[in-house]
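Quick one, T. Sequence first:
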Amino acid sequence: MDLAYVKATLTNRVAEIEFYSPASNSLNSEQLKQLSKAILSFDDREDVSVIHLKSSGEKAFCAGASFDELLEIETLDKGTAFFMGFANVINAIRKSHKIVVTSIQGKTVGGGVGIAAASDYVFATDQASVKLSELSIGIGPFVIEPAVSRKIGLANFTELTLNPTEWKTAVWAKEVGLYAKVATSVVELNKGVSEFLKQLTTYNSQALSALKRTLWKDNTDDWGELLKERAAISGKLVLSEETKKALAQFKNK
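Structure tokens:
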């Protein structure tokens, strides 16, 4: 069985961070920790112009949190710590000195939508539909809400949240601002991303860093504490019997 991983490589001033999990690229706490660390590790690298975030495979970009790990949570501290994993990834993207470009090759759910929303620029395929399924398993998208609402607006966030079983198309995601470009195939996606990243590397890296600060200048300074509070809400909810039962049912489908 393939093992989950996070790996980072550097080629021609592009730092590429790739993650993989055999469970539709759902993320466990160790992977989330590695993602945050990898993103921030390039901050002071003068030989890096831009970060490219992607996952392996073609069917799913990210299925959100690892259900196996969610089912094992037995205390509030452990629940809060798990959801802080997604909070830390979002904050790492926010605080990074580098522009983060993300490729979304397939469906994305929950925390994966949060990662897409936090990214500075997103390419996707027309198969990259999105869903916030949290309410249907007894929790809610509390940690990712600030990033998602910032990118697509509160009304569209509400539409996603209160319809947790409904997939929204990649076209919808582009129309509301979650995606910047939508390709008709993975081949077209990869070509577009490659050309875009190559172009970014020709720009003044100091200008790119200054632009990154400008993009994130409004109403995000409190996210360090805000996302901790949100992680505690989810950490408490995941302990409920209702949530445990819903998670088990989803896992066994």
